[in-house]
Structure to design on (340 residues):
C-alpha cells in the first residue's frame, strides 16, 4: 500500500480550501456589509470582529497543523509497530480545559470593552438629533420629536453630528439594524431601547429588520440617507411644511377618493382629518424613494400596483385589497405623488 505521507498534500489542499471558504464574506463584501463601516461604532465592531477572527485563525492553524503533523509523523509504518498506549493524562486534561477558558475570558473582556465604546451616549454639547424608531409589521416609523417630522422607511441624518435613537415596537419584536452604521438593537413592545451613532460620510445606507417578525420580515427594509447639515436642514424644512396644496383635476379627485374611502382610517396626512395610525404617515409620501418598506421604488406605476393589490405585492401585510376602480387608483396616485 502506498504510504499515506506521499498524499499529505491532499490534506493540506483540503485545509486550504476550507480556509478559503471561511473568508468569502471578506472577499466578496458588498454594502450593506459590516465589513465596510461608516461610523466609529461600526469600526469598533469590525475591529472586534477582526481580532476574534485573528484568534480563531491562529487556533485553527495550530490545531490543523498538529493534526497534519500527527497524521504524517505517526502514520502506520510497515513494521506495524504498536505505539506505547497511554490512558488519560492529568497535565493534558488540565491544559485543554484551561487554554480554551483563557481564550473565552479574553474574548469576553474584548467584547465588553467594545460594547462600552461602541455605545457612547452623545453629550448635549454635541447637539444630537433625536429620532424615535417604531417597528411595525412590516415597516418602520421614524419620528423626529424636536422637528415634528413623521416619516416611514427613510431616515435622514446629518453627517458629523450624532443621532440618538429611541427604539420601540408597536406589535412584535423587531430589530433595528444598519450594518454599516451600528450593531443590532431590538425593538420591543412596551420597552425602549437605545442606540446612537455619528455617520462620517454622506451616503445612502441600507437598513433591515434583523429579528424574525412574521411573513414579511425580509421585506422590512429602510434607507438611512446621511447628508451634510445644510442639505439635512432643507429636507427637514420640507418635511415640516404642511401638506402640499393639491393642484390639477386628477389629484383633486384623488384627494376626494382618499377621504371618502378606508384610507383615512389607517393613514395620517398632517393638517387634514386623516389621522390613522396603522399604516405609514403619507403627508410627504411623494418625497420618499421607496414604498412598502424598501420593496418598491416610489414611482407612479409602482404606487398604482401597490394600491390596486397590496396583498399580491406583500402577501399578509396589514393593508387590505380595497377593490378600487382604475379611475380611483389613477386619481389616488396623482394625489399621493403630489405630496412631496
Ligand atoms: C387597514 C389599514 C389600511 C388601509 C385601509 C389602507 N392602508 Fe395603506 N398601508 C397600510 C399599511 C399597514 C401599510 C404598510 C405596509 C407595509 O409596508 O408592510 C400601507 C402602505 C401604504 C402605502 C405605501 C406607503 C409607504 O411609505 O410605504 C401607500 C401609498 C398606501 N398605503 C396608500 C393607501 C391608500 C391610497 C389607501 C386607501 C385606498 C390605503 N392605503 C388604505 C394600511 C392601510
Ligand atoms: Cu421586523
Amino acid at each position: 500500500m502506498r504510504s499515506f505521507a506521499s498524499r499529505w498534500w491532499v490534506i493540506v489542499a483540503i485545509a486550504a480550501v476550507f480556509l478559503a471558504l471561511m473568508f468569502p464574506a471578506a472577499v466578496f463584501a458588498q454594502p450593506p456589509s459590516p465589513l465596510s463601516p461608516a461610523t466609529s461604532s461600526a469600526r469598533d465592531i469590525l475591529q472586534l470582529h477582526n481580532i476574534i477572527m485573528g484568534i480563531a485563525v491562529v487556533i485553527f492553524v495550530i490545531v490543523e497543523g498538529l493534526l497534519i503533523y500527527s497524521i504524517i509523523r505517526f502514520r502506520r509504518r510497515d513494521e506495524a509497530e504498536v505505539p506505547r498506549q497511554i490512558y488519560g493524562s492529568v497535565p493534558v486534561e488540565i491544559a485543554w480545559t484551561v487554554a480554551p477558558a483563557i481564550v473565552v475570558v479574553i474574548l469576553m473582556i474584548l467584547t465588553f470593552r467594545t460594547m462600552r465604546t461602541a455605545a457612547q451616549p452623545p453629550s448635549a454639547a454635541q447637539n444630537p438629533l433625536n429620532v424615535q424608531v417604531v417597528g411595525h409589521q412590516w415597516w418602520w416609523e421614524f419620528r423626529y420629536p424636536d422637528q415634528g417630522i413623521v416619516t416611514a422607511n427613510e431616515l435622514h441624518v446629518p453627517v458629523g453630528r450624532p443621532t440618538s435613537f429611541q427604539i420601540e415596537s408597536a406589535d412584535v419584536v423587531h430589530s433595528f439594524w444598519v450594518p454599516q452604521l451600528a450593531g443590532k438593537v431590538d425593538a420591543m413592545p412596551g420597552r425602549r431601547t437605545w442606540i446612537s451613532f455619528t455617520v462620517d460620510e454622506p451616503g445612502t445606507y441600507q437598513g433591515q429588520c434583523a429579528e424574525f417578525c412574521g411573513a414579511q420580515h425580509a421585506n422590512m427594509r429602510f434607507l438611512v440617507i446621511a447628508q451634510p447639515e445644510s442639505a439635512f436642514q432643507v429636507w427637514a424644512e420640507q418635511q415640516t411644511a404642511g401638506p402640499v396644496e393639491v393642484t390639477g383635476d386628477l389629484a383633486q379627485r384623488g384627494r376626494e377618493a382618499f377621504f371618502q374611502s378606508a384610507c383615512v382610517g389607517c393613514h395620517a396626512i398632517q393638517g387634514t382629518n386623516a389621522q390613522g395610525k396603522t399604516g405609514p404617515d403619507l403627508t410627504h409620501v411623494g418625497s420618499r424613494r421607496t414604498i412598502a418598506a424598501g420593496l418598491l421604488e416610489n414611482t407612479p406605476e409602482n404606487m398604482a400596483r401597490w394600491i390596486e393589490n397590496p396583498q399580491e405585492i406583500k402577501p399578509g401585510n396589514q393593508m387590505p385589497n380595497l377593490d378600487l376602480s382604475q379611475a380611483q387608483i389613477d386619481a389616488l396616485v396623482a394625489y399621493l405623488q403630489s405630496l412631496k
In short: The CA atoms of residues 249 and 331 lie 9 Å apart. The mean pLDDT is 90. The chain has three domains: 4-79+86-118, 124-240, 249-338.
